[in-house]
Amino acid sequence: MNDLIVEQVPRLRRYARALTGESARADDLVQDTLERAWEKRHLWQRGSDLRAWMFSIMHNVFVNQIRQGQISYATLPLEDEALEIPVRATQEDGLAMRDLAASIGRLPAEFREVILLVGLEQMRYEEVAEVLDIPIGTVMSRLSRGRERLRALMAAGGVSALRRVK
Amino acid sequence: MNDEANEVREEDLHAYIDGHLDAARKAEVEAYLVANPAELERVQAYGKQNDMLHALFDSALDEAVPFPIQPPANRKRFMPLLRVAAAAAWMAVGGTVGWMLHTQDAAKPLPAMAFAHQAAIAHVVYTPEVLHPVEVGADQEAHLVKWLSKRLGTELKPPHLGNAGYELVGGRLLPGDKGPAAQFMYQDTRGQRLTLYVRHNEDTNRETAFRYAQEGKVGVFYWIDGGMGYALSGEADKASLLKVANVVYQEFNP
C-alpha cells in the first residue's frame, strides 16, 4: 500500500502544480494529501482505483484550503519558476504557454480541476465525476464552459501583450 | 441534416479531443468538423490547450521529489526546503542524489560506476536550468568544439542526435576527479533533456560494452571507447535511452 501511494506522487505533483500555479504551494498540497491518505489508508478498498482515490483526497484538501481562505487562487501570480518549460520552447510558443499558464489561474477552481483532470491526467469523464464527486453531466458542462473560457482568455492575450510592452 | 442518433453534440466534440471515441464515431465527428469550420477551429484550440498543459507541467513527473515520502510514524515535514530559492533547491536535489550515490558507492566501489555517478549528478544539476543550461549554446557550435577540444586535449565534437529526435542545446566544461569533463545537453520537442558526459579514460580498459546504471529517476548508459569514457543520462525509459546511446556510439565511430 505504501509503495502504491508513493507511485502516485509524481502525478499528484504535476496536477497540484497546474492547479496552484506555484511549486512550493503545490508541494504543500501534495504533502497534506499524502498525510490524509496515510491516515485514511484503511478506508481504501484493495482492488479499487488508487489513483482516483488519491486524487479525490487531493480535491478535498484543495477545496478545504480555498474555503478556509488560505489562498486566493484567482489572484495568485504565477511564479516564473512554474513557467520553466515555455522558455525552452520557441518564443512564440513560449508566449502562448505563458498565456495559458496565466489564464488557467484565472479560471474558477471548479473549471480548472475538470480541465486538468481531463487534459493533463487524461482521466475518463466517469473517473473525473468520481474524483470530484459530481454528476457526469456537471463534468461535461464544466469541461465545455471551462475550455471555452480558457480559449477566450488566451485569445485576449492579455498577459503576453502586457509583457511585450514591459 | 444528421438524424437524431448521429447528431454531433458538444460532448462528442470533447470526447473527440480527448480520444475517447471509437473509430466509427470519430469518423462522423470528423465529417461534421469538415462541414463546420468554426467548430473545427474551436476543437483545434481545445486540443492545443491539452498539448500545452502537457508541455507546461509534465516536467513535474520527472523531478526528484523535494520532500521525504514516508508513512506518518517516522515522517517529518520538511518545509524549509520548499521555501528556498529555486537555485538552492536544485543544489539540494543534486546533494540528495550525491548522498544516495555515495551510499551506493560504498557497496560497489567500481571506478566505472563512479563515472556514471558523476554523469548522473551533472545531469540532475544542469538539466533543470532554464537560463543557463549550457555555457556555450548550439548556435556557437564551432566555438564549442574548439573550446572543449582544447580543454580536454582531444578533438571532441558533439554528436548529432537529430535522427533520435534530440537537438543539441549546447555544452559546458565540468571538473571531474580525473581532469576536465565535457557535458553536452540535448532536448527533444517536448523539452525532455538528455546529457552526454565525456572525459578521458585512464583505466586499463580501452573498450567496454554498454553498461547501465539507474540513479533515482536518472538512467545512465556508459561505456569506454578509444581512450574516452562516455555516459548518456536521461529520465527516458531504458529502451529509448539505449536507442540514443547507440546513435551516439555510431556518431563517434562513423
SSE layout and pairing:
The complex is a heterodimer of chains A (166) and B (254).
Chain A: H1 2-7, H2 9-20, H3 23-39, H4 50-67, H5 84-88, H6 91-106, H7 109-119, H8 125-132, H9 136-156, H10 158-165
Chain B: H1 10-17, H2 23-35, H3 37-57, H4 59-62, H5 79-83, H6 86-107, H7 111-126, E1 136-137, H8 141-152, E2 167-176, E3 179-187, E4 193-200, E5 211-215, E6 218-225, E7 228-234, H9 238-252
Explain what the structure shows.
The complex is a heterodimer of chains A (166) and B (254). Chain A has helices spanning 2-7, 9-20, 23-39, 50-67, 84-88, 91-106, 109-119, 125-132, 136-156, 158-165. Chain A is mainly alpha-helical. Chain A folds into 2 domains: 1-73, RNA polymerase sigma factor, region 2, helix turn helix motif (Rna Polymerase Sigma Factor, Chain: A); 83-166, Arc Repressor Mutant, subunit A, CATH 1.10.10. In chain A, helix 7 packs across helix 9 (136-156) and helix 8 crosses helix 9. Mean pLDDT of chain A is 80; it is low at 73-89 and 158-166. Chain B is α+β, with helices and mostly antiparallel strands. Chain B has 2 domains: 4-57; 72-252, MucB/RseB, C-terminal domain (Phosphorylase Kinase, domain 1), CATH 3.30.200. In chain B, 46% of the residues lie in helices and 19% in strands. Chain B is built from 9 helices and 7 strands, in the order αααααααβαββββββα. Chain B has a 7-stranded antiparallel β-sheet with strand order 1-2-3-4-7-6-5, sandwiched between helices. In chain B, strand 3 and strand 4 (193-200) form a beta hairpin. The radius of gyration of chain B is 23 Å and the shape is elongated. Residues 74-110 of chain B have low confidence and may be disordered. The chains are: A mainly alpha (166), B alpha+beta (254). The A-B interface holds A 2, 6, 9-11, 13-14, 17-18, 23-24, 26-28, 31, 34-35, 38-39, 81, 83-89, 93, 96-97, 100-101, 104, 115-116, 118-120, 122, 124-125, 140, 143-144, 147-148, 150-151, 154 and B 10-11, 14-15, 18, 20, 42, 45-46, 49-50, 52-63, 65-67, 69, 71-72, 75, 77, 82-83, 86, 128, 130-131, 187, 191.
